[in-house]
């Protein structure tokens, strides 16, 4: 068994697609109309056959409440690994990304947290 798709709730799929591709650098893998929403998945440019990230609309009241609560509590919705967190932090700052936690060493890892502008906090980690 392996993870093939994981999802993240987003307030606006088009805005999320733009942020995750143009700002973060992910690659769109699937974009299929599904009624008033779309099945949009992204992959890492380095692993285009790897795990997909689904941009899931938060249209369901339970999804919206969950997303808003973890955001308010400062809990990242997901985590992305990077090879050089200082370099990635600088690159994203230059693109206007707002960080809620600057790169911080915690034990054997360094983490940083940013706002994805779509209702989520995202954690970066360098192992």
What's the CATH class label? Alpha Beta
- Per DSSP E runs of 2 or more residues, the count of β-strands stands at 8
Radius of gyration computed on alpha carbons: 15 Å
Structural domains: how many: 1
CATH structural fold name: 2,3-Dihydroxybiphenyl 1,2-Dioxygenase, domain 1
The named CATH superfamily: 2,3-Dihydroxybiphenyl 1,2-Dioxygenase, domain 1
Secondary structure tally, helices:
3
Shape: globular
CATH architecture: Roll
Biggest sheet character = 4 strands, mixed
Strand content: 35-45%
- Helix content bin: 25-40%
Instruction: Return residue spans where pLDDT drops below 50 for at least 5 consecutive residues.
Output: none
* Measured distance between first and last alpha carbons: 24 Å
Q: Structural class, please?
A: alpha/beta
Helices and strands, in N-to-C order? EHEEEHEHEEE
* pLDDT averaged residue by residue: 97
Structure description:
Residues 2-127 form the VOC domain. It comes from Brevibacillus thermoruber. The structure is a single chain. By secondary structure, this protein is an alpha/beta fold. The chain has three helices and eight strands. The protein has helices at residues 13-23, 61-72, 85-94; strands at residues 5-10, 27-34, 37-43, 52-57, 78-81, 99-106, 109-115, 121-126. The strands form two sheets. It has a four-stranded mixed beta sheet with strand order 1-4-3-2. A four-stranded mixed beta sheet has the order 5-8-7-6. The two termini are 24 Å apart.
Helices, strands, pairings?
Elements: E1 5-10, H1 13-23, E2 27-34, E3 37-43, E4 52-57, H2 61-72, E5 78-81, H3 85-94, E6 99-106, E7 109-115, E8 121-126
Parallel strand pairs: 1-4, 5-8
Antiparallel strand pairs: 2-3, 3-4, 6-7, 7-8
